[in-house]
Amino acid sequence: MSFKSPQLGLYIRIVALLSLLLGLSDAGRLLGVNLGATSPVAVLGPTGFVLLAIFSLSRLFAGVGLWLKASWGAVLLVSSTAAELALYLSGSQDIHMSAVGFAVRIVLLVAISAIFALSFRFTRAQATD
């Protein structure tokens, strides 16, 4: 799958920026921004802290991969976002998410699915030419 098409370039970069911003927001939660003297591990719990760290790092790496227009960035973003949403929707007590955070993750999942579909369509159109 090729993300090198000029039509997808701006769209991929917007999704990359959204992924980077969400990853940085999660990293801020890991560092305890807006918690005062309370430890983030005490608020999130040890398992929640580790899961948030994994999802934050994977989202940051996926954003960099998308910015470079590498297909591994899209795969990493889909897998990490789908895993996080699956854990949240299954009722895991370790995943804490606001309604806005949930909506942003759904938008990311839909956007990256659209990128896959458009990339597939672009590749198929090039093959028929």
Structural overview:
This protein has helices at 6-31, 40-44, 46-67, 71-89, 99-128. It is an all-alpha fold and 129 residues long. The chain has one domain (6-122). Helix 1 (6-31) packs antiparallel against helix 3 (46-67), helix 1 (6-31) packs antiparallel against helix 5 (99-128) and helix 3 runs antiparallel to helix 4 (71-89). The longest helix is centred in the last third of the chain and has 30 residues, at 99-128. It is elongated and about 60 Å long. The two termini are 17 Å apart.
Task: Provide tags for this entry.
single chain, 129 residues, mainly alpha, 5 helices, elongated
Give the arrangement of secondary structure elements.
Layout: H1 6-31, H2 40-44, H3 46-67, H4 71-89, H5 99-128
Helix pairs in contact: 1-3, 1-5, 3-4, 4-5
